[in-house]
């Protein structure tokens, strides 16, 4: 689709909010002008309907029965089910552009999205935006609804945070940037209180961040940060990596999906005041277990001493790329 807006339109087509048993049609035409709320009293489901039409209860059963041809697959999201049921009980709420006013969570996964376009601003109540496994490299913060609390961009191609931090949503609580292409030292400056005053959870896993000292100095300004994921970055190879983070960020409660207990915090107490222990180097030991397709050296050791047979030697070069 290219853009988030285009992907959302495809999503609406998939849900069929305007098609039977949802939306308006001959199956519920007498309700066309009845502005019923989706939270109407249950008694409203049982009222009489004209011949040829279906009760809201019967229409809901067509959505919920797993054997129904109109049922959603079992692995669909709760929002998919909610929107479909609202489209039965109060289709006027989702008619036309009104659908943008009721959606609070939008999940568009692995749809080839490359652009976070300004069409997102039509979502006036959006709190959660999940765009994982797409092809997004830049995010213009001017196109993000100010109501956002969760922004997940895992498994994309984000390599720069400058556009995202130009005017980010002020109430954002979770920012997910795992499995992207962020590399220091220019990116750490965008991870401060000035941009994310209410951030509680931050995922930077599996990027190419290398400067632990600089990163910690910026993250220490995030006064509400309790959950941090940094595993998969080169800086996580530093021997004192976890202890330095635990002691440097006293409000942190979870690091790399592992809870920080009082015993661990006491164990690493004072390590934050010893930055000289952090070395920008790591040692990697590689063990070769088995090599296939090579001549067996034992075959050549069986030649008799003084044999005039040809002597064949082999040499090999093994290269590792990190």
Automatic annotation (TrEMBL):
GO terms for cellular component: cytoplasm. Keywords: Leucine-rich repeat, Repeat. InterPro entries: Leu-rich_rpt, LRR_dom_sf. It comes from the Eukaryota. This is LRC43 protein. It comes from Cettia cetti. The lineage of its organism: Eukaryota, Metazoa, Chordata, Craniata, Vertebrata. The gene is Lrrc43.
């Amino acid at each position: 689709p290219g853009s988030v807006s285009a992907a959302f339109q495809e999503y609406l087509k998939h849900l069929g909010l305007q098609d039977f048993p949802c939306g308006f049609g001959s199956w519920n035409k007498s309700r066309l002008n009845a502005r019923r709320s989706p939270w109407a009293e249950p008694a409203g489901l049982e009222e009489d309907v004209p011949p040829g039409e279906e009760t809201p209860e019967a229409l809901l059963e067509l959505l919920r029965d797993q054997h129904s041809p109109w049922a959603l697959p079992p692995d669909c999201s709760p929002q998919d089910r909610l929107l479909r049921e609202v489209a039965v009980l109060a289709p006027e709420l989702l008619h036309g552009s009104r659908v943008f006013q009721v959606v609070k969570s939008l999940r568009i996964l692995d749809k080839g999205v490359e652009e976070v376009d300004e069409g997102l601003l039509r979502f006036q109540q959006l709190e959660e935006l999940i765009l994982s496994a797409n092809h997004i490299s830049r995010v213009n913060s001017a196109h993000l609804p100010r109501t956002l609390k969760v922004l997940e961009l895992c498994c994309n191609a984000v390599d720069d945070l400058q556009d995202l931090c130009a005017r980010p949503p002020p109430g954002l609580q979770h920012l997910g940037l795992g499995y992207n292409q962020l590399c220091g030292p220019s990116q750490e400056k965008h991870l401060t209180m000035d941009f994310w005053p209410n951030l509680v959870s931050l995922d930077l896993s599996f990027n190419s961040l290398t400067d632990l000292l600089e990163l910690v100095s910026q993250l220490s300004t995030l006064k509400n940060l309790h959950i941090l994921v940094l595993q998969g970055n080169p800086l996580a190879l530093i021997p004192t990596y976890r202890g330095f983070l635990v002691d440097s960020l006293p409000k942190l409660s979870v690091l790399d999906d592992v809870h920080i207990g009082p015993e661990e915090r006491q164990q690493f107490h004072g390590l934050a005041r010893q930055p000289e222990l952090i070395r920008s180097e790591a040692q990697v030991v590689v063990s070769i277990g088995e090599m296939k397709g090579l001549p067996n050296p034992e075959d050549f050791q069986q030649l008799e001493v003084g044999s005039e047979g040809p002597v064949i030697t082999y040499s090999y070069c093994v290269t590792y790329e990190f």
